[in-house]
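Quick illustration, no need to memorize.
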Amino acid sequence: MNCTCSKNNTEFYKDFELKNFNTLKISSKADLAFFVKDEAQLCSVFRMYKNAKTLGWGSNTLLSSKGVREPVIITRKMSEISQRCEIMEIEAGASAPKVALEAYNNSLSGFEFLIGIPSTLGGAVAMNAGAHEQTISDKLISARVYDIKEDKIITLSKDELNFSYRNSLIKQNTDRYALISAKFQLEKRGKEEIKKRMDENTEFRKRVQPSLVMPNLGSVFKNPTLPDGQKLSAGMLVDKCGLKGFHVGNAGVWERHGNFVINYLNCTSSEYLQVLYKMYTSVKEKFNIELECEIMRIGEFSAQEDEIWRVIKKS
């Protein structure tokens, strides 16, 4: 049912299907889904529902097949991009490819790696997304964030956001902070140089990663670093366990890369998590390495799913 919120005329839906709002294409219904178009609406919804969850493209977020009881705030309409000289300010809902193209159109370098990432800016900042020796935090100056607990908008510096490999203050505190926008200092470069790098990044992703025609949440596990500093590939470790092509129901490890799990045909969140559990436990048993899961989750999960999550998240 389509109606409007009493505060700031925010569009919202009841019993809303989220299948097209997560890149795994899992069917999951939200009791309430809000489409916010600016920071006033974002803050207003959080004031009414402090337990609300934000969702952009859902490229690293597992939704429960049983549904989502918490209100879901969909940020895709918060997508304004402004630019002055070499500084870009970008709202949380802007898509990563759109950001990359906007930078390219203005001869600005630093966002070439975003061209192939199926994410919003908000998700990219929370995850400190990166590829090809570039990360979102490299060029970040500051971020405007809504502090849900204190009911105020604050500005956090790059240092305050506490970025690390696929992590940030926002990811660690999703119940406390919601990104509104972020400001970046880019570099002037020739368009040909920028385009060449974007094309190389796109070609690389086509070679080694599944397209969204094969629904997935991106890389499942972080690449581990051993105590001696040696960096390993999570996909290689899974492959050495012989798990490429391993299935539970309609979820399975991609045959071409061991760190991607595909929804082959209407898989459930339980099937997806059981595949992750097999990957995690197999690598631990064979190599004594505990992989760290990159993805997040939203929704009402079963006791079995909660137990798997506890193990693979080590919490």
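The helical segments are 39-48, 96-105, 121-127, 169-172, 191-208, 234-240, 269-287, 303-313.
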